[in-house]
Amino acid sequence: MSYADRVFVQNVKDILENGVWDTDKDVRPKWLDGTPAHTIKKFCLVNRYDLSKEFPIITIRKTAYKNAIDELLWIWQKKSNNIADLHSHIWDSWADENGSIGKAYGYQLGVKHKYKEGMFDQVDRVIYDLKNNPTSRRIMTNIYNHHDLHEMGLYPCAYSMTFNVSGNKLNAILNQRSQDMLTANNWNVCQYAVLVHMIARVTGLEPGELVHVIADAHIYDRHIPLVKEIIEHEQYDAPKFVMDESVKDFYDFTVDSFTFEDYKYNDKKYKIEVAV
To answer: Exposure pattern of 195-218 as b/e (b: 16+ CB <10 Å)?
Structure first.
């Protein structure tokens, strides 16, 4: 079975059995019919994935990895905040009349800052340091910029990455303030596992561990029947993750640079309500 399946099932069961409900409180998210979207949550889940052993994609339900990678490239490579540059519609609810999500996500990564070596944005600084100073303990990104929050369509959920090199292995910590476990958990895990592979490739390193820290791991009330059904599905072995060997530059990767060989998964389709 996929290791990611085991982690997801364990997380979800823990939330359902030991989580805390917010039904006695006023909450910001709403369903499309205007009903408050309540959750059951656990505080601070920490999951570790060894990328040198297996790619962390679930099989109990298909993860739409092409759309997930497309969003990752939209944020980290294009550094865009406009949904016209994105091929899926997952950000439509948070865009303004011009298609912008404001000074969020890709915008923050693309802002250049002055260093003694020159001007870098956050992505290029990570790559520079991993190539030139891999023993540094200061290699990180952070897109939760407090004095731009009022100009963001949505405050960043996955907001920081810390990179650390051990030997020749690139490890990373993904910090996430909030996660909708059904719609976003494995989506984000796959995205940032791909990112570690990408950055390792272009900096001459090998992928190591991805550690995912979730401050508020929750399941929405209307998602619970679906979650309970999904975690009972048959589990398969993880597919083989393959990157295009010819790509050496971070900005040359495309969605088609990545394949998942023998990806077996439960193919039942679900119509999932999204709280906004």
So the answer is: bbbbbbbbbebebbbbbbbbebbb
